[in-house]
Design goal:
The longest helix is centred in the middle third of the chain and has 20 residues, at 83-102. 39% of the residues lie in helices and 20% in strands. It is an alpha+beta fold.
Length: 141
């Protein structure tokens, strides 16, 4: 059994990946109807012991519609004509997603609104107020 090392603290056992070979859609004549060259790679993220919980949460957000309600990541690869190259492409896509999810987001540091910015905003409000006051009914003399 091989183990895929994604990053620090993230390892995936080869047995956790399920590959299904399907027929690719699109043009190709008779050949496309005979050969199952497209690859559907499934990885059960929710039950994987090698992926930390925080990474699983980030991966679910990154994957979007590629992840099922059961927590299974489904990657379809059908760009290439050969089955082997589609397998490699699917695994590369999985690795890229996991590596992106492994990077924690940078914390946001609150900053104070600059004093000049506050003054400009208040000045704009004053100008707008005088414009709107000028739209009222004329005063009776």
């Amino acid at each position: 059994m091989q183990t895929l090392r994604i990053g620090p603290g993230i390892t995936i056992d080869e047995s956790e990946l399920t590959e299904t070979f399907i027929r690719a859609s699109g043009p190709g004549g008779q050949h496309v109807n005979k050969v199952s060259s497209a690859v559907q790679l499934r990885f059960d993220v929710a039950n994987s012991p090698g992926v930390p919980h925080e990474v699983k949460l980030r991966l679910a957000r990154l994957a979007g519609t590629k992840i099922t309600l059961d927590g299974v990541l489904v990657i379809n690869a059908r760009e290439h004509r050969s089955q082997d190259r589609n397998r490699q492409a699917a695994r590369a896509a999985l690795m890229a997603l996991l590596q992106e999810a492994a990077v924690p987001p940078r914390p946001r540091h609150k900053t104070k609104t600059p004093y000049g910015e506050k003054l400009r905003r208040l000045e704009g409000k004053k100008i707008r107020s005088t414009v709107k006051q000028g739209r009222g009914r004329p005063a009776e003399d």
